[in-house]
Fold this protein.
Amino acid sequence: RRGDWHRSLAHPAIICAAQLALRARRRAARWTFNEHTFDFVHIRCLFGSISDWSKLYRDAFRTIKSGGWIEQCEINVQIVSDDGTVDEDHILTGWAKPFFKAGDLIGKSIRTLDRSKELMEGAGFTNVVQRNYKVPIGAWSSDAKLKEVGRWNLLFCLSGMESWAIYMLTVVLKWKVEDVHEYLAKVKAAFLDRKNHGYYVM
């Protein structure tokens, strides 16, 4: 029954499930799978790569068996803090702005997390549950678990930031490459400054 279908958001583990198919290429095109094919569909970090999320969810709904599940994990790239160390004028607050602008220009929004629950329900999914998690950038948290998460997330951000930025800032927003590198150096310094208690939500 359609009413038996569920969806939970944000599970950071790698999923291995029966009849799970990963088709990275042409993921936004119409799915060629038959109706009621899958027990479980997992979507992870496709923000900025899908032009029509409603269509993607409708295709998922059509191909998941009754009683099956869809799970999605996305990131809100807007960095914030709870203690004011990353305020509205901070360079880390501004980190998301060019990506939001570039995503809008190419018709592939970076703001996926903001509407995923609403769009899943619009596609027919029921009992949709959204769970948001704070993910620290750096080992600044007093909580031991979050400190460890933050340590690894800092590595993730430092190792990934150039690849995330180069295309969006140079090709889409027409920044000069040298300006991008100068900007990234400042963002990197802010990431490494433990006085900044920034995090994002996933």
